[in-house]
Specification:
Elements: E1 47-49, E2 52-54, E3 60-61, E4 64-68, H1 85-97, E5 103-108, H2 110-113, H3 122-136, E6 141-146, H4 169-175, H5 191-194, H6 196-206, H7 212-229, H8 233-237, H9 259-280, E7 288-290, E8 319-325, H10 328-332, H11 346-359, E9 363-368, H12 380-392, H13 397-400, E10 412-415, E11 427-428, E12 436-437, E13 451-453, E14 459-461, H14 465-468, E15 475-476, E16 478-486, E17 490-491, E18 494-495, H15 506-512, E19 517-524, E20 531-535, E21 545-548, E22 551-554, E23 565-569, E24 577-581, E25 589-595, H16 603-620
Parallel strand pairs: 4-5, 4-10, 5-6, 7-8, 8-9, 9-10
Antiparallel strand pairs: 1-2, 2-3, 3-15, 11-12, 13-14, 16-19, 17-18, 19-25, 20-24, 21-22, 21-25, 23-24
Helix pairs in contact: 1-3, 7-9, 11-12, 15-16
Length: 622
């Protein structure tokens, strides 16, 4: 992930800105009950088909959530995201109810899973699995990630400006690496390409020096086996897959090697080996969430390197392309002096859509975000709005109503990050008792957590709820053709409206008014389970209006199988809610506008808005 040392940013453009004991405690009974608030079509495992995530009813699934959590990169909780299962439950409930998330990228640490070579710390795995279970039991799907940044904290000196995470101490000691030094570095990510110790250690891992990669794969298989064996079948269905390695980079290229040939000859074979370990551990029906060379989609041209697993062939259902995206220009404070605007990232995310289409698989933007303090934090409201906009559609707001059919698939994503301990850490940086970090994320000056605990121990958002808690199509019965959401989030006192309803639809515009709205257009499939959209807390039933070819509803009723427009709680008992749209027939184009802008719309206005939308859909999706 990217970071900023605010006092020096104005004088330097980043050279590299992305980062980018046996126990069965807590083992559940085999026949655990269904999640609270579940409905008959809930709880199936997700797979990959036709370039999308799909559930057991054939519905296209979209995952939205957060990374849980950067605390794993610290030593204070010994490589766990939370100090206790109670904190994990509190965080999971808030992630669902406040952040609108239905998924979490759950960070794990090789250093704590295998502190001694060949010896797996099952106490660590038990604690991690208990915390994973807390999210699964809140209805949050989980995809674990073996996280690393700068290879390992054990490469860094006690007085260093920077630190890392990932590999255990014994792995570093095997290498005999030079004393770490980044020279004149003002971003922690510069260590990736400038710190000789980091580069040498990464090189050794990818070349399996000292059998390092073999040890990692054995540890990973035992970790995955443990997690599967200590979850019920229903809980394990909520585990999406596994991210083998965070932000891979060569360290140093061999003579004549390029970023593309490195991916082909070293990175992809590693993923094939990891995939085999997933199969051996009983994860054969879940995808490996594989990341390309971390610089493949850098938005600073001088830093971009050819990649994207271009030579891996068709990835199909057993691999998902997982990638990160940070606006390095915005973070530099120099290359993007203003703020993000409508459509800022639709080209970047459009390139991802094109790449996964060519690879025949689904996409997951497993990290994105922006600093929330420091010199460039004023850009955060617009940068994040533009990133969510690009996840929703490849068409910018000003053009969406004109060319909605070009939207492309709705992308899944996980914002960095969700750390309830933000500003309350007690981390001895690199083990140094004279460098106790408490502020921000307590890691390399980062401050990106969307949440914190207030003085009463309550989880509180640090960002605009209108930005984070969003309408999105969590399950589409058929194929999503186009989707947009105007969140009306704020940049200070300014309301950001990038996708106003056009004047050509006056009744729709009158219905929406100054409120938020989402619009989904989809083609029905063969399944009978309804289409679902997450309803933010800003959409209470009493002020929610739906206009659809299925009918109109102000204050939609509770769900029944024969109610075409209805609401229901989301599974997990967190209080979050969903809109359920039930269709009949196959191959029909449907639409649904959801808004909270109308207090008491008349039947006449609802009918007129429906007529306008029907005509618009007929023109744009004929």
């Amino acid at each position: 992930m990217p970071n900023i040392r605010a006092r020096l940013l104005a004088v330097l453009v980043v050279l590299c800105g992305l980062c980018g004991f046996l126990t069965a405690a807590g083992t559940p009974a085999a026949g655990a009950a269904a999640l609270p608030d579940s409905l008959p079509f809930d709880g199936t495992a997700l797979t990959v088909a036709n370039g999308r995530f799909v559930d057991g009813h054939g519905r296209e699934a979209v995952l939205r959530g957060y990374n849980v959590s950067g605390e794993t990169k610290l030593d204070e909780n010994k490589g766990l995201p939370f100090a206790s299962v109670a904190d994990a439950r509190k965080s999971a409930t808030a992630l669902r109810a406040l952040g609108g998330g239905n998924s979490a990228r759950f960070l794990l640490s090789w250093a704590y899973a295998e502190p001694v070579r060949g010896q797996i710390d099952t106490a660590y795995l038990a604690a991690a699995t208990d915390q994973i279970r807390a999210f699964l039991d809140a209805g949050v799907r989980v995809h674990p990630d073996f996280h690393q940044d700068l290879y390992s904290r054990y490469l860094f000196n006690s007085g260093s400006w920077y630190t890392g995470d990932g590999a255990p101490k014994w792995a570093v000691e095997l290498g005999g690496y030079p004393r770490e030094s980044c020279g004149i570095c003002f971003f922690w990510g510069q260590n990736i390409t400038q710190n000789g110790a980091v580069k040498a250690a990464q090189y050794d891992f990818w070349h399996n020096a000292h059998g390092l990669q073999d040890s990692f794969l054995t540890m990973a298989e035992r970790t995955m086996t443990y997690i599967r064996q200590h979850l019920t079948a229903e809980q394990f269905a909520g585990v999406l897959g596994f991210d083998p390695y965070n932000e891979p980079y060569a360290g140093t290229y061999d003579s004549g090697q390029t970023s593309r040939t490195w991916e082909r000859d070293l990175l992809w074979p590693f993923y094939v080996r990891f995939r085999a370990r997933m199969d051996a551990a009983g994860w054969q029906d879940k995808p490996a969430l594989v990341e390309p060379n971390l610089f493949w989609n850098a938005n600073i041209t001088s830093q971009r390197q050819e990649g994207g697993l271009l030579d891996a062939g068709t990835l199909g259902s057993r691999y998902v392309l997982s990638t990160h995206f940070y606006d390095q220009k915005a973070i530099s404070a120099i290359l993007m002096p203003g703020k993000a605007a409508d459509g800022q990232y639709v080209t970047d995310f459009g390139a991802l859509r094109d790449r996964v289409s060519a690879a025949g698989t689904a996409a997951l933007v497993s990290e994105f975000g922006h600093p929330l303090s420091g010199l460039v934090s004023d850009k955060a409201p617009t940068v994040l709005k533009a990133m969510y906009q690009a996840l929703d559609s490849r068409v910018k707001g000003a053009s969406w109503w004109t060319t909605p059919a070009a939207s492309g698939p709705v992308l899944s994503g996980a914002q960095w990050q969700w750390d309830i301990y933000h500003g309350r850490h007690h981390e001895l940086m690199n083990g140094n008792p004279d460098k106790v970090l408490t502020a921000g994320d307590a890691w390399n000056d980062e401050d990106l957590s969307a949440v914190r605990l207030d003085d009463n121990g309550t989880v509180t958002l640090r960002q605009d709820a209108r930005l984070l808690d969003r309408i999105y199509p969590s399950a589409t019965s058929g194929t999503a053709l186009a989707f947009t959401y105007e969140d009306r989030s704020r940049d200070g006192s300014t309301t950001l409206t990038w996708n106003p309803v056009p004047a050509a639809l006056p009744n729709v515009a009158a219905l929406v008014g100054s409120g938020q709205y989402g619009l989904l257009v989809w083609r029905s499939g063969t399944g009978t389970a309804p289409t679902e959209l997450h309803l933010p807390a800003s959409f209470p039933t009493s002020t929610t209006t739906v206009v659809s070819d299925l009918g109109t509803a102000h204050g939609p009723p509770a769900y029944t199988p024969t109610t075409p427009i209805a609401t229901a709680p989301e599974p997990g008992g967190t209080g979050s809610r969903r809109l359920l749209l039930t269709t009949t027939g196959q191959g029909t184009v449907h639409y649904a506008l959801i808004t909270n802008g109308a207090t008491a719309p008349s039947a006449t206005l609802l009918a007129a808005a429906r007529t306008e939308l029907a005509s618009w859909v007929g023109q744009k999706f004929a």
